[in-house]
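Researcher: We're teaching a course module on how sequence relates to structure. For the next exercise, students receive a sequence and then see the predicted structure as tokens, so they can try to spot secondary structure elements on their own. Here is the exercise chain.
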Amino acid sequence: QVQLAESGGGLVQAGGSLRLSCAASGRTFSNYAMGWFRQAPGKEREFVATINWSGGITSYADSVKGRFTISRDNAKNTVYLQMNSVKPEDTAVYYCAAVLGGTATTKKNMYLYWGQGTQVTVSS
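Model: And here is the predicted structure for the students to work with:
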């Protein structure tokens, strides 16, 4: 079992920056690839970014490529999402998730463990 807890959400103006954190506990963090997903009101949860166990491989949704950066610190059992040049359409609840095996994946149904989410609101 892995417990995940997101933090860092809040209200930010368009064009600004925000950094989300996700602290993991319960199992060896480096055994898991990690991902960030988001869900806006009335929409399905969608993939944002993923990172493999070592941090050497990342992948992003086209909508955030060049603006968001995923990273991890295995010594701190934490994964981050740096959000730059945010837009109103980035407004959503952001979730981190863990997939066993260490290989990064964009597939939502591969993720076993999920956090409770953190709200990000971007004002225009």
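Model: If you want an answer key for the exercise: The mean pLDDT is 96. The longest strand covers residues 92-100.
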